[in-house]
Please model this.
Amino acid sequence: MRIKRLHKFMLMSFIGPLFLTFFIVIFLLLMQFLWKYIDELAGKGLSAGIIAELLLYTSTSLVPMALPLAILLASLMTFGNLGENYELTALKSAGISLQRIMSPLIILVAGISILAFFFSNNVMPYANLKMRALLYDIRQKRPAFQITEGIFYNGIDGYSIKVGRKDPRTNKLYNIKIYDHTAGKGNISVTTADSGLMKMTPDSNLIFILYSGYSYNELEDETRSRGHKTYPHRMDYFQQQELILSLSGFGFNRTDENLFKGGYQMMNLKQLSKARDSLNQDYELNRQVFYKDLLAVNYFRNDFVVRKKKEGDTVFLKNPPLTLKKFYPDSIYDTLPLPDKKLVISQALGLARTAQSYISSQKETFYNKIKRIRRHEIEWHRKFTLSFACLIFFFIGAPLGAIIRKGGLGMPVVISVLFFVVYYVISLIGEKMVRENLLPAAEGMWISSVILLPLGIYLTYKATTDSAILNLDTYSRFIRKIMVALKMEEENSNG
Model:
């Protein structure tokens, strides 16, 4: 019964900080996302529903990154609070080991890691698909139609509009100038009006109702010769005129999501494996074709010429018979006259340059193919590494919190951010080396886990043995002993 109460106490102490830190981390990462894309979101008149949908899918895609950091911070806070309030000392005095205290949380974090893997494999591709499609639609949407006083507005294709003054009470416009560039011939059509009204139609059209104005048009005279064209001027006065402009592109249109399903971030493990196998087969096929073409066309051409003497005449044989067992290019070259030697050297240099150009172009093609394969492999391993990071960070945070014995959001936040930055930087370095084909995908993606896992084991061992590895007094005493020993050695040498 006592153990069950202890397990319940540990779970309740851990779950609260876990939820708190998880939502804090999600919020911070979401603010980073908004800061990155604020220029593409602002000024487009997006509805609150579209913004909320984008934030929902973005938050979902950030879960695998936020969860390990939240577990690290929550474990540090939980065991730091227990150590600071001497509850951990009391539990150890009662004969309960640290492993026994940590056991319910180990089971909980292991379950969270398994759920995180299934989340990454099943939910993440769907969330990434929705987010990328929605973000693409937002990028394609033009900024909201808004004309500023005294400034030309060029947001409508083929038109440039300027309004001198706007009356906010009546929505009336004054001193209106509209330049029509739809013909692609410059300012050949201009409409001015003393005043007017502007309204939108349901079919994405903008209607200007203009009062007391003029329309100026330059007309090209086709009857003159081509070199002496004239441009007659035409001016029409109107009391009232309606001008209809199309606003296609200002509305928010949803793109077919099937266009984005081919991205590696929108695939689960099964789809990634299938796509990787297809890419490997395509790469191998292209490599074999390149190898054969390089040998057949550039290195060992089938149409080489053999010079042969026959009754004093020189005969050139194309595609020599198979009875020719050996081929001696030097001997054949020596029998050629000087002009033919120069021609042969010139042709050889041309073929060499062609081969070099062919190799350079194919090198870039193969590099892009390998890069695409590596991206699929990176995404395949990421679904495992992010889940495994939950366990690693728990075995770093829990013993570290028991050692430093500091709760709250002060010291735990600093240490958590430090460890997470180290993990993230190592992960980025490994991922970059995989993308550049310097390391296999398994080594590059798991290098951060391999480095931090021994640290977690070491900290757990030190916390179990009550080692004060972060106690400043321990290090200061050690330094003082070294200083005393050095001083005594110096006195003995002087004496």
